[in-house]
Design a protein that fits this description.
With about 130 residues, this protein is of the alpha/beta class. The chain folds into two domains: about 25 residues; about 100 residues, Immunoglobulin-like (Sandwich), CATH 2.60.40.420. It is about 20% helix and about 40% strand. Strand 2 and strand 3 form a beta hairpin. The chain is elongated and about 70 Å long. The relative contact order is 0.17. About 10% of the residues have low confidence. Bound molecules: copper (II) ion. The site of copper (II) ion (CU) has 6 residues, from loops.
Amino acid sequence: MKKIILVIMVLIIILVTGCTSNKKNTFVDKNVPYEAKVVNGVQEVKLSWGKFNYNPQEIIVKEGIPVNLNADLDRLRGCFNSIRIPDLGVSESFSETNPTITFTPKNKGTFSFSCSMGMGKGIIKVI
Ligand SMILES: [Cu+2]
């Protein structure tokens, strides 16, 4: 009887470990805050798609330096290509001929962005 309990416990441990490592594999599109890198006086940010929303969902930029928001056109689909940042006066669409949207954050703060239909959402932190 004790052996059976031991076997069941071992099986449970194997199952739990298996599920956990499986989960890790599906988290390829892990969304972590992205701090823009300054290249030739411009803050470069790549905006892509992952887990049914934008990736990154949190973008950190510095005040007073232009930001290039570069669309990952291979992954952004449909209305995710129409981006709205109301507080920063941005309302534009990415396309093959317009893959980059440039704006300069003039004030510190946290501003929300979304696709035109409001399904995709994120925040831009200006520091
Ligand atoms: Cu949308």
